[in-house]
Please model this.
Amino acid sequence: MKNILLTITTVLCLNISQAQELESILLAADDAGILTENYLNPAMKGLMYSVNGGWYTTGKTHKKFGFDLTISANASLVPSSNEFFRFVQSDYTFVNLPNGESQIPTVMSESSAETNIDIRIPNGDGSFKVASFSMPGGIGSDLPLNAVPAPMVQIGFGLPTKTDLKIRFIPNIAFDDDFESGLFGIGLQHDISQYFGPIEKLPLSISVLGAFTTLKASYNINEEDLTDNVSVNNGEAEFKLNAYTVQAIASLDFKLITFYGSVGYNGGKTTAKMKGDYTLTYDVEDSNGNQIGTVNENITDPLNLGFNVNGMRATIGTRLNLAFFKIFADYSLQEYNTISAGIALSFR
Model:
């Protein structure tokens, strides 16, 4: 997860691959937000779907004071339709594509091709602020599977009334001094088979689950991250994710194997912000395209992006039961289909 979060946060200042043209995209004002949201959209959506995976491997809850430790890996597959976004000129005020492309790769595209972008902003006196930069291509071709991963460690604990409390927790951890992230998730799974009388005598278990996850990450933007044409004070890229899921779960629980499935609903919201005070230096041209000087401009908190997901999901999976040791895998059908797999130590 560290790599995908680093990509998300550092891409806010375009400091990935060979693209380090921060001052150019910030010059584009509101256009910068539209471009960056479109570019990051599949990574943000995929991560929200991934963190909603792997909450359960059976519809059966623990006995009182039973517990489990589960380690899982969730990967939300990026649809091919989300590897590119359409460039509609009328959506932008100052940005244009000199090579006339109609589509631009997103961060999760398997195409690593860069896109040349020009910016031309009138000063009101017949001159123009001008800049150009290369929008980076995607990272999909560098991944073994074009998917957004979210590994998880989870503890489940049996409460009275056939209810499991599930906790996910990663304390705030700093990487390389400048990058920090942390995660917390909580879920409740309640067995409703107990209310159906004779059904309790069958190997069928039915339960309901509600779970919530929050994730935060930040990256300190320093002078060495930037080009000579931009300086920064208190620079930071900030990422916050909130995701929830509500599901009805059913399972057939046998001694050696468990079959489980569910239907439910996912939702989530993510914000990505670029904070700080930036001083940009860029060229000024006259109406004939002749350079007539340079100018400095100060910008504060230049980017504030928002992403949302919501929709139905359906999951089917199986678990191999080797005494207290479990191996499981499942597949969820949703906007970004998700694969989950892992191991668990479970004591009923």
